[in-house]
Every structure is written in C-alpha cells, then in structure tokens.
Write a structure and sequence with these properties.
- This protein has 14 helices and eight strands.
- It has 340 residues and is α/β, with parallel strands linked by helices.
- The N and C termini lie far apart (49 Å).
- Mean pLDDT is 94; it is low at 1-13.
Length: 340
C-alpha cells in the first residue's frame, strides 16, 4: 500500500501533519506569494501538511505576504507558520531552522521561487517508500529555444541528481546527519553535501519523477556570471567534505582551461614587464587570446546571438577565469584544503 494511502487511513483530527513543507525566503515577497499560492492549491486531503516559511533576514514585505496567504491555507485545514531567522544566514541555515521546527516526520523542501505542481506532495509522498531515506522530484526550468548563457546554465538544475528545490527527506535521516552544513552560505552545493552525507550513512535516495516543480529562471542583470564565480568557494568545501563523491559525481578533473588561461595572462604580464624578449609577451598574449576566444565560443554555442549578449560573453569570458581561480584559492585558504 502506498505511503499516502496508508497515512490517510490513519489520520485523526489531532494528529500531526504527515509532511512539513519548508520554504526558505529572503526579501523576495513577490516570489514567495506565487509559491504559497501553489502550495495552498495542493490536491491532498485537508490537514495533511503544514508550511513553514523561514524568513532569512526578516522583512515587513515577507511578513505581509505570509499574513495575506495564511488565511487561505488555514481555511483548507492545513497549517502555516512563520519562522524569523536572525542568523546565521544562508539557505542551508534557513532550511535547518525550518526542519527542526517541523511537526511532521517527513520534510518536503522547496524554494520561494518555485511553483510546485498541484500533485507535488501526493506524488512525492507516494515515491518515498519504506526503503528510502529521501527522494528527489523533477524540476522543469522553461527557457527559450535560444537562451542566454545564464539561462542555459541555470537550466542545468533540471539534470541535477539531488536538489533542495524539490526533495522529500525523512526527519530521522536529517537528525542522523545533522541537517545542512551551514558553512555553505550561498545557494550552491549545500544540497549535494546533504545528498552525499545521506549516502555515506548507507541510506538510499530515490527518484520521484511525478513530483513536479516548475522553477522559472529569474531575470538577471548584465554580467551576472561574474558575481556567480564566488560560488566556486563552496565547490572547495564540498570537495573537502566528500572528496571521492565530488570526483565521481560533480567534477572528475579540475578546470585546467582556467588555470592555463590565467597562467598565460600572468606570463604575458611578467615577460612584458621584465623586458627579457619582445617575442615572449606576444606569444603568451596570443595563446591567452586563443584559449579565451575558445572559451567564449563554447559559451555562445546554441545561445542567443543578440549584440548585447555577444558583448556580455566577450567581456565576461575575459574576466571569468581569473575570478574563478581567485575564488578557488580563497576557498582553499578559508576551508584549509588543497583543491586543484
């Protein structure tokens, strides 16, 4: 018998909810409103779930949205709670606050910028059979036929093994592994870290392909890829925590192209300043330009060819390799680990 059916037959009016939905949010009330509308419309028996909104850096706008949507959720017989987080901050810490406050034994994680399907909870619970500690649902990120580099990069979330924008975990396994590692201060790799720690206990993680969440790609300002390079620090932390799983499931080898580009750039500058030879700076500069142009063309392949996007790719392709290497080195120093 499926989990959802078994739990339905055992429900009483005073029972704890079967599943707690944890939604971390941070100063994005317009997105939270859309997400809460989708959660309020879940096609599941009354009283089956609670929503826990964790407000990372509490704001009046978030509280206003919470209050405006709470009545709808409560009228449907479900529960909704607001948890203000004064710190530590970040999505990992916010999710920890949420699941620790949960009354249910199953925790469903999603994000404030998602739109869960009406049968998301039903299908996720049905997939979480007794042999599994967690399941990951399916994410759809609609992008245009010729997306920008940013849109294409963001849509890679659809192919990720385990994403906290759509997953169901037993509270017992979260308690066993200690929840999320709060050193992951940005929305990057904290979900893979949780996945790896669950797997390292010997527990199993399943797939819930019918538990669907739509994750629209948010608009981004020009040059957003430069800001995102800071996330590389948390690749270093993930590698430190799980070196074997990182190499087998995330990245099998380092970004040697980045190191080569940065090395050639530094060599061109050093030889130019030394005045040893007029040819060496030109040779190093030419090789640097060749590898940088190759990197730019790879990013442009299959993406938008508008003048603004091409210009963005040219400029950011010059800056990304040194920024990525800088943040990788910063991560190695911060987390005290060697990581190529």
């Amino acid at each position: 018998m499926r989990l959802i059916e078994r739990d339905q037959s055992a429900r009483t009016s005073n029972a704890a909810p079967v599943v707690s939905v944890v939604v971390p949010t941070c100063n994005r009330p317009w997105l939270l409103e859309r997400c809460l509308d989708a959660l309020a419309g879940q096609k599941i028996r009354s009283g089956f779930f609670e929503i826990i909104v964790v407000d990372d850096r509490p704001s009046a706008g978030t509280r206003a949205v919470f209050r405006s949507k709470a009545a709808t959720v409560i009228r449907a017989g479900n529960e909704i709670r607001y948890v203000a987080s004064s710190g530590p901050h970040g999505p990992a810490a916010a999710r920890n606050r949420g699941w620790k406050a949960a009354r249910a034994e199953i925790i469903a994680f999603t994000d404030d910028d998602t739109v869960p399907d009406a049968l998301w909870l039903v299908n996720g619970l049905n997939a979480l059979d007794d042999s599994l500690a967690a399941v990951c649902g399916r994410i759809v990120m609609p992008i245009p036929p010729l997306p920008t580099d940013y849109e294409r990069d963001a849509s890679g979330l659809e192919r990720a093994e385990f994403v906290t924008a759509n997953c169901f975990c037993r509270k017992a396994i979260l308690e066993r592994v200690g929840g999320f590692d709060e050193r992951f201060e940005l929305a990057w790799r904290e979900d893979s870290d949780l996945q790896f720690r669950i797997l390292e206990t010997g527990a199993r993680i399943g797939i819930a392909p019918d538990a669907l969440v739509v994750h629209p790609v948010r608009p981004a300002r020009w040059g957003i890829s430069l800001q995102q390079q800071k996330k590389v620090m948390f690749d270093v932390l993930l590698f430190k925590n799980h070196p074997r799983l990182y190499r087998t499931r995330i990245r099998k080898s380092p970004r040697w192209d980045y190191y080569a580009i940065v090395g050639l750039m530094l060599a061109a500058i050093a030889t130019g300043l030394s005045g040893v030879s007029p040819w060496l700076p030109a040779i190093f500069t030419g090789l640097w330009a060749l590898l940088t142009a190759r990197f730019c063309m790879l990013r442009l392949r299959g993406t938008s060819r508008t003048a603004a996007h091409i210009a963005e790719m040219v400029v950011t392709s010059v800056l990304i390799p040194p920024l990525a290497v800088f943040w990788r080195l910063a991560g190695m120093l911060k987390f005290r680990v060697g990581f190529a």
